Amino acid sequence: MLSLVTGASSGIGLQYATQLARDYQSDLLLVSNQEQELQQVAKDLAEQYGVKTIAHYADLSLTDAAENLYEWCHEQHLEVDVLINNAGVFFFNEYCKTDIKRIELMLQLHVMTVAKMTRLFAADMCARRNGYILNMSSMSAWMAMPGIQTYNASKAFIYNFSKSLWYELKPYNVHITVMAPGAVDTGLFGLAPKLRKLAVNLTVSIPPEKLVKRALKKLFKGKQADTPGFINWLSTPLLKHTPDWVLMLAQKKLAKYMH
Question: Which of 29, 42, 75, 96 could form a disulfide with 55 if both were Cys (CB 3.0 to 4.6 A apart)?
């Protein structure tokens, strides 16, 4: 089995690569725009778990990145059995103060590259009547939240796109799963250690290794979508009906993080 993992040099992508090698003995095609880190990750995973690893440097925010990667796989006679579309970016910004290049990068990476990667590799999987695709969305897909307006809109695309494709691909024995986690327990939001621990205990936040373990189980069971954490799952419908005054208050609180 060969698994293609994007954004594999660090964070959640590294967890996907590690657990696929360790727990599923999958060979790996690791893709990232961090070339040195990627080479080291590929070397370490091959040595630790005895799987074949290939490090492929690529900037997936470029307009032809998906096509170039797909063609390269064909030239190398690589047959991808599992596709993990994990690469992504995140930032807080007022929209009208955000550089257009940053907006373009996020939309290209989250929308066009994910859509094209799925289209290209899923077609081969359908022809073989077997394959797995995992796309990373977010609970923010249901949130009208100032500061992350481009991010949550792109994650909403991924969520609905993936759920719709689940029906189309199922007759071909190709399984697509979309994960929509809430907060992931990293240093991204600058929370104090006690608050991070509390968030994890309340299942509002989830450690990266636990998220990935759950995601892979859902993927290989053919599940359509998943939102980890009981509180997150319970609150999802409420996010669609958040009062305007709450969002305006959030705007004021988040303003200090926007730059």
Answer: 42
To which residue do tokens 């399984």 refer?
Answer: 175
Tell me whether strands 174-179 and 82-85 are parallel, antiparallel or unpaired.
unpaired
- Give the model's confidence band at 200: pLDDT under 50 very low, under 70 low, under 90 confident, else very high: very low
Distance CA 250, CA 259 (A): 16
- Domain residue limits, the chain: 2-257
Our CA angle for 46, 50, 54, nearest 5°, is 35
**Which of 36-45, 51-60, 142-151, 166-175 bottoms out in mean pLDDT, i.e. has the lowest?**
142-151
Contact partners, residue 5, CB within 8 Å, separation at least 6: 13, 16, 17, 20, 28, 29, 30, 31, 84, 86
pTM of this structure? 0.87
Helix (H) or strand (E) holding 5: strand 2-6
Distance CA 47, CA 39 (A): 12
SS3 145: coil
